[in-house]
Write a structure and sequence with these properties.
about 10% strand, flat
Length: about 500
Amino acid sequence: MKRLHLYIIKSFIGPFVMTFFIVLFILLMQFLWKYVDDLVGKGLDFGVLAEMMFYASFALLPLAFPLAMLLASIMTFGSMGENYELVAMKSSGISLFRIMRPLILIAILITSTAFYFSNNIVPKTNLRFSTLLYSVKQQKPELVLQSGVFTNEIDGYSIKVSHKDNKTKMLYDLLIYDHSGGKANESVTVADSGILRITDDKKFMVLTLFHGINYEETKPENNRDRDNHGYRRSIFQEQTIRVKTKGFDFNRRDESIFRNQSRMLNLKELRDMEDSLSVDYYNRLRKYMTQINLNPTVTIALYNLMVKEDSLKRPAVPGPDTIVDFDSCFAGVEKWVQADIVGQALESARNVNQNVNMFQSQLYVHKTNLNRYNMEAHRKFTLSVAVLVFFFVGAPLGAIIRKGGLGMPVIVSILLFIFYYILSISGEKSAREDVWNMMNGMWFSTYIFLPVGVWLTYKAATDSAIMSAETYTKFFSRLGLGRFFKQKPKK
């Protein structure tokens, strides 16, 4: 049995490692398509791009582990079923569960590894990736002068080029407006040609102009001649403009900007943050309830419902000794008094409705933020347990379909993972909007796939022909629908 277990483990490790890196590569390509607009044209070093890809790959590990497990388990057992190895093992008296036993231990080990990465490694890499991505987004793109278009990327200058030579980097027919020092269009430079370059440290722009004229208005020295502006024209053969640039050099931002976000915290930090946000949320809720102009008895009753400690509850206001007949009292006053009472009641109701809507929108923002931290804590468990769940789905499914390689297993794995992802996103959205309980929303996909895995394992262990068309033909024949599923006689 030990040799058999070793053979099964070797048959599984190869496909799992291969599919893991394939899945990680595909997810990484999806990441590149998502952020390609933020990376192109920034003049980033290869080291910065490699660092960003490295951190992004760690952020994708929680999704890569389950999908690789599903694909590898289908490939392993599908290949053994296709080569009749499972039939030989079962004919020797070895049950499917005993065949799966060593891989169950491997799946539990991978599940523990996935949880360790999600809780300890991924939050740190997410923090560094988010900080690095924010730094890249804040950097200005490389200075590219387009023909016939004004460029305002240089602080204080607006430059237009008629055409340029891509080989020699020479610019022709330049028009430059100098807006430095808060100037309007007081200084204009026209040049036949020029060369623009950025220093190696990306701190200065050096523009060398050839054969041009500078037109400039001069301001009067005293206020009496403020309506009379001087005019000066300067002809030059060569002129150099040096401008200090900002934002073209790559500066790393401080990681403390994103330190307290949900994706950057481990399980213990998430629980602490969740407790702090929960206390702040219920304090705001109690504060808002006392600010709404309601009946004092109703206000105190609602306040006491939201207080966890009995010592903080307020005593109830004693009710009136007598019951007032409002209709008789209202009918006994004059009409102008009735109109005044109705007007005051409507105004009070409108104010209460306005305050309730305002408080509700503010509380919704705080509650959504609180739910985000709670969801992240559950996600660390759900994505890790998904590795084990997908093994119990993929292994018996591979034994049933009996197809190995990268054909049928890839199609089945993608379809199952898409269905799992749709269920997961739907449950998370319902939990975030407080439509469902947080536990039910975050574990909704697991609730669906775990019974499916148990059912598939049972069917594969009992050699049930659930993938045979004849099985379903007989089933519908018992229901009286056999004429719709008749098979053509074989010649």
